[in-house]
């Protein structure tokens, strides 16, 4: 018994060491960003392996990035767009998915299949038609609201898809049936019982979508062409040149853009694991 | 609850629950898609005011564009390799990080960080790593594999794309696998343990079948994402060395916006879409079927 | 769930306030200098006119913004400058969305596609008479693109290091043939510089430009190059039989042999290349005058730099540099109002005709201009060198007649040639095949 215990312990330690080593490997590019955000471009190019710029840490990169990107404005734009898009995505995708799982209506089946199929559409098929329709015909580009609604339209297929899988496998019908006897309407059942139970998947979706939207470049660059509407990824483009880029400033801008996301991630991370539904009812 | 509804009630419920999502989905995805399909039958070059209906001419051109078919073939190979590596790594990580390891939450966050850096910049960082840092490292440790940049040899540039893809997406897929793992009822596993089942058997007979929904989702997501790779392709290898790693999306982009053959580019994008759809949906169909059987 | 969302919003907001706190002094200061209204350009607008400018030459964005502010404050025009590194894509998107920039700085390919429908015929503008008609982009005899800058693809050299190694003065005019250049290389190698030449790895630099030398050096004129390509098209001749092709490739072979990146030619890094030339680790960089803004951060104080024509044997035009207008300014007529169009034209006029505008163009944007009325000297060594060749009449026409897929189709083959994966005969065949299927665009 003792020997087996030691063996198990050794295995655990081995596993832990392995995972931490892998993590270090995973972090290398990220460390490169941090290190290079404090080096001048010339020294990034000349001394790629130096940890510190020979002229000392270049905090000026952060100042330049802050000023040239108009960071506060771009941050606020990114924040508003991401925040509202996420709200719409989570609430309405969860509702749609719930209906699609719990009914066997033809219209639901068709809708869901079309949504899933649409997830494989390459964006370039839609790109020009999209701006032709909403720009040239309706003239509603260059507005945060338009972008938020477009983010919602583009993202909802995947969110619905993920919620669909979760509801089907992890939300027991039994609970709902109990509520139905109480005389709740479907909408009431959904919001009072099902929606709260979806916390793990919704947290997962939220963090994945926040990241995706926060870093998104192509769609925002199509919709927002005026400077005062720029989001962080568009603003960072200031440092891209025709033949070579301003890496020090790009990295500094990147670190600043990513920081709030890390905070949010750490927060959501707890919910992803905390909100486990006990499988008791299901089994 | 949904049993005895008439058509009008059904319509109301549909609009109430799925309405907002469906309306915006149709408006920004389906309507432009249809317009995009229409454009493939015209000779529009993407920028001029002339637009004439030319029937299937663009599709004939697509058929003759051997570079496109080669890039499509390459994309399929790349996607196949990257999907396997990504999901193996992600599944392994999720398994390890749900086994009550010390610093589990920290580790999960750590493996997820690659997702914090988006698109183009990520490619530049890795390009810097492959062609500068590793080559510099050769001077110190003399490892032959690092003597020349990986990005200047065909096979290694392809490997570099796969490595970066795995690095980028494994944390993402890991999260989905983790939510699958934590959804597995612990009492079932406990019961199996008490019955004397080995860990391997438990994984095979209990964990894997219950993980099938996560596997289907992850495969689907990784297939569609790797297929559509563009940013990484552009910033890491730029299609090089000498055009040997140019994937379908990149080819389509340059066809439409650098060569001003928008109609052909759009038609190629559509062919490309049909290929991805066929592969991804077949995968999902098979996966779902197995889910039911298990 | 509501709680999560609430907390999420609070976290984001507090992050923001945290960030915004330190931003007091970061507010942009308005330019102090002002300029007077020049009646030759036009009157100031009574009501502020808002126009937009799409710039595809990112290195001059700051200078353009300065210029736009100066012009704007005098004439009551507000110019918003947006930047892109992919003019083809951006201009297509902007026209598709009905939100075209009033002024756009684009490449010749876009002028060609836009001319006649989308952009203004600028043939009657005042700057046409002072050089615009020579270098402007014409379609059907009308000028649609105003030439922004003249650039040359050539060899950039580090004079200081060459003279240090040779122990004598370096006279570029002595090395215009390949044979002469080869002796120079041998001397440099003997003096200890093993690989005096720097080649880029990018598809435009290593793949596209070298092929253009073949066209440019046919007889130094556009007409001559087009005549040759038409002969290839009809099957009357082939690249392999063309003397110029072989001469150009003899020179390129020498470059490839003495390339500082020869161990791994396709991994060359643009910035590292700049630093090689700046520091004198190599003597020649096969590139062009546009490299200055990226080169400048590495330039060593006290070192002298200059430009040299592509060395070539048995050519009547040897010793001349290839010159071309590489960026054009166009003005929209589809989405812009009458007033906006007028403001756009005034801005272009101001850049060329007004002393303050000329200062922006030459001293701030640091370009070589196509306009003869501007007498300000260029600012950097590469451009000064180019100006001397232009003044001496030692220039030949750059290639601007390639179909739009020329680079994507042929550049990879040339890159493979540089890496030793493709033979000269194979490359010649690839060129033959391309030009048999395509005609030069006139």
Written overview of the protein:
The complex is a heterotrimer of chains A (283), B (294) and C (442). Chain A has 283 residues and is an all-alpha fold. Chain A folds into 2 domains: 35 residues; 214 residues, MetI-like fold (Orthogonal Bundle). Chain A has 13 helices and no strands. The C terminus of chain A is likely disordered. Chain B is mainly α. Chain B has a single domain, classed as MetI-like fold (Orthogonal Bundle), CATH 1.10.3720. By secondary structure, chain C is α/β, with parallel strands linked by helices. Chain C folds into 2 domains: 164 residues, Periplasmic binding protein-like II (D-Maltodextrin-Binding Protein, domain 2, 3-Layer(aba) Sandwich), CATH 3.40.190; 213 residues, Periplasmic binding protein-like II (D-Maltodextrin-Binding Protein, domain 2, 3-Layer(aba) Sandwich), CATH 3.40.190. In chain C, 45% of the residues lie in helices and 14% in strands. In chain C, strands 1, 2, 3, 4, 5, 6, 7, 8, 9 and 10 form a 10-stranded mixed beta sheet that branches. About 4% of the residues of chain C have low confidence. Chains A and B meet through helix 1, helix 4, helix 5, helix 6 and helix 7 of A and helix 1, helix 4, helix 5, helix 6 and helix 7 of B.
Question: Short description, anyone?
Answer:
Chain A is mainly alpha-helical and 283 residues long.
Structural class of chain A: mainly alpha
Q: State the helical fraction of chain C.
A: 40-55%
Strand-and-helix sequence of chain C, N→C? Answer: HEHEHEHHEEHHEHHHHEHEEHHHEHH
Fourth CATH level, the homologous superfamily of the largest domain in chain A: MetI-like
Order of helices and strands of chain A: HHHHHHHHHHHHH
Radius of gyration of chain C: 24 Å
Give the radius of gyration of chain A: 24 Å
